Amino acid sequence: MLQVKSLTKTFGGFKAVNGANLDVKKGEIIAVIGPNGAGKTTLFNLITGILKPDSGQVFFKNEDITGLPPYIVCKKRISRSFQVVNVFQRRTVFENVQVSVLARENKTWNLFTPSKKLVIEETNRILESVGLIDKGDDISAALSHGDRKVLEIAMALGGNPEFLILDEPTAGMAAEETDRCIDLIKQLSEKMGLTILFCEHDMELVFSISDRIMVMVRGSTIIQGSCEEVRCNEAVQDAYLGGSDVCLM
Amino acid sequence: MVTKGRIGAYAGIIFLLALPLFFPRFYVYIASLILLYGLLATSLNFVLGFGGIYQFHHCVFYGAGAYGAALMLTKTGFSPWVGFIVGPLVAALLSLILGLICIRLSKLYFGMLQISLGSLVWAVIYRWYSLTGGDDGIHGISVPDMIASANGAYYFALIVTGLSFFIIFKILKSPFGSVLQGIRDNPIRSEMIGVNVKRHQLAALVISGFFAGVAGVLFVVVDTTVFPDMLFWTLSMEVMIMCLLGGWFTFMGPILGAALIVLLRTFISTYTVYWALFLGIVLMIIIFFLPNGVLGYFQEKFRPKKLVKG
Amino acid sequence: MDFIYTFLSPGVLSQIFVGLSRTVILFIVASGLSLILGVLRIPNVFHGSLYMIGAFMAYTICSVVGGDAGFWLALIGAPIGVGLVSLATERGLFQYLYEREHIMLILFTFAISLVFGDLVKIVWGAEYKSVPVPQVFQGFVPLFGGLPFPRYNMFLLFMGPVVAIALWFLVNKTKIGKISQAAAVDREMVGAVGINVSWVFATVFVIGCFLAGLGGALVAPTVSVTLGMDHSLIIEAFLIVIMGGLGNIWGALLGALIFGLTQSLGILIWPQFGIVFPYLAVIVVLLFRPTGLLKSTW
After folding, report:
1. Residue of B124, B232, B280 with shortest CB distance to C114
2. Are C267 and C23 spatial neighbours (Cβ–Cβ below 8 Å)?
3. Partners of residue B124 in chain C, C-beta under 8 Å
4. Alpha carbon A59 to its chain's center
5. Where are the domains of chain B?
6. Neighbors of chain A by Cβ distance (3+ pairs < 8 Å)
7. Given B116, B124, B287, which is nearest C107 (Cβ)?
């Protein structure tokens, strides 16, 4: 479904992403792992068009989407959440998701119909599915950190994606919030049939839900394979754990 | 609650309609000024408070609307009503042109480029004596008899601003308005949900410029003059102060702010020539203690759940 | 060849020199503004007011002391006076507002400029004031085929490089300069190594404002000192800073050169709309280099 071929991005001499390769099949859950600064977020920014790559290509459903601006990438039904919480702070939870649905349905140029009459059911359905329906009228800046991360995912769902990119979905969450989030990701994959690409530092989470794992170190792809392959790979252990004796998991 | 608000609104409308019956001419004139500055500030707040665009030199469009109408009225034989429509269209067109140039930049850089382009427009109008009357501006513009009297001008201003406020309010509540506020809060996120941010911002700028032009036309009707200071950057700062004073993130805030500033200027300047000193001090106090403006402060105070942190 | 000769006629050359002396004033004021923008990130609208206050202070000192001594005293005294005013403002008000949004800071500094404008009106009145050109600089020097060029403008042309070199020395060779450069990039880091960032900022702010005062004192003998002289200058100074790159002193110099020269040559080419050319220059520059000609510290 998504192929990334030797993608490269340099910031003033620093190679943030250097020849990254990735192959995602429909319906899979793929994790990207790697030490801090390995270029995971940059890779996501390159795929979604927030950054333009220096070289390399991104294909989505066999179509070249390299360097397209984010709003067009989104129209191809790729959505994402952000690592740092990126919601519309002054708007309510409901409005946050609603805007996303409106944008997908190309209603953003409607100047005179009141928003409150549009796409209510769809928005409520999404809020329901992520468990935020009770908090619809809260200003999103007032939400707890965990709820805002979930709202992130809900906004991504507003675009009715086939392909969902989650940048550290559980970062900073409390234990029970993390469990809720894992359930949510599993549901999205199983019930809605979404293909999911995510990165995460929580190894327990990574190994428990992903079908395959891609390992990035210093901007390059070291290996992409099943959990077992990755776990037993020496290069991964060297690079990732700095050659220590600790075994992954 | 709802009925109370509604009764208040009706009382307000009746008060505004009956105002010329009870107040002398001068106050009617002041009321018209409040209305048109209220519209000017609201049109700015549309892009500044709701759109998050740093439009530092908004008065360019106010002046463009005013000069557009004034020139149509004095230099051509068209009906004045045509001039009243041409004014805002000129402002909207100018807004489109300036917007196209500035939109690539963000925040402070946008604002600074916008100020320099605006100053360019000011300089052209200031210097083009043969067309604009230069420094002196144009005086004694004759408007249709129906709206030539103080009361006529007031009612005209009341109807036009009322209609404009209604339209702006509708737009803010529409999907376009939602998207605009989303862009203010987070442009990158907006792109990522499929919104072409720059194009929406540009459209917002054109709408905002149009209504600033409407305010400019109203000034021509109320005051029958135009002069280059209408496009000078200090006036733009004053309009931003109106928005800040009332509150960025509220619809009524800028109107309240405009009323405060116009009243302050009118009444304080009868007591002292140092009204700017007074305004400056008031403004400093507001920024120090009420960064969300007067209305914003009350909203925050009485709805603590909704706005815990900014 | 003929064309070049006509273009470089003595008249044009002397116009260029007039433009250059204007450039010096613009540079001195804009470099102060740029310094404050670069390190403190404050778009200081009352910088223009300080320039005006500098000119008025120079007037007072000159009329009290009199003669050439008065001029030299004003050249030192007026900027110091302005520096003290700015120190009071920074310690009294600004140090509490550094974290606010730019738009708030702009409006806040505009509020201060309103207050300063009226204070100047109260202290000095609304009439035009004139400051005499000191004896040493009266008269003209012959230039290019005998065209007279005012001596005082020659002095200004001399002052420009002096200020530029002094600033370069201050920023690159002194401790406070190095600290402020670091603070411009990462103020938390500087605070973490035990430097009192608050006072670093105050010092930079006062130095920037000192330059505004110096610009005012230098310009005083060439113009009529009056209320409102700050209004057009502050916009010009902002444009220069933006054109050169925020916080870049050499950018300010380059910007001032472009601004001053397009202004004076513009008047020569099309007298009625000469005022338009520098604005056009800014627009052209920003179209091609949206963040200014030289590297910005932001």
Report:
1. B280
2. no
3. 273, 276
4. 17
5. 25-231
6. B
7. B287
Looking at the domain assignment, is residue C146 inside a domain? yes
Q: Provide the number of structural domains found in chain C.
A: 1
Alpha-carbon distance of C71 to C56, in angstroms, equals 13
Asked whether residue C10 is assigned to any structural domain, the reply reads: no
> Are B and A close enough to touch, i.e. 3+ CB pairs under 8 angstroms?
yes
Which residue carries 């040559």 as its tokens? Answer: C265
Domain A1-77+161-249 belongs to what topology?
Rossmann fold (3.40.50)
Of B54, B237, B276, the CB nearest to C117: B276
Domain range enclosing C167: 27-228
Cβ-proximal residues to A96 (8 Å cutoff; 6+ apart), any chain: A87, A88, A140, A151, A154, A155, B182
User: What's the CATH architecture for B25-231?
Assistant: Orthogonal Bundle (1.10)
What are the residue ranges of helices labelled H in C41-139?
47-65, 67-92, 102-124
Q: Is residue C140 part of a domain?
A: yes
CB contact under 8 A, B178 and A91: yes
Q: Give the pLDDT score at A221.
A: 85
Tell me C137's DSSP state. Answer: G
Instruction: Quick: pLDDT tens for C84-141.
Output: 999 999 999 888 888 788 888 888 999 999 999 999 999 998 888 888 888 888 888 8
Spatial separation of the C-alpha atoms in residues B55 and B45, rounded to whole Å: 9
* Rounded mean pLDDT, C15-31: 89
Backbone angles phi and psi of A236, in degrees to 5: -65, -45
Domain regions of chain A by residue span = 1-77+161-249, 90-159
Asked if the structure places residue C250 within a domain, the reply is: no
Q: Which tens digit of pLDDT belongs to each residue from B61-87?
A: 999 999 999 999 998 888 889 999 999
What does chain C come to in residues? Answer: 298
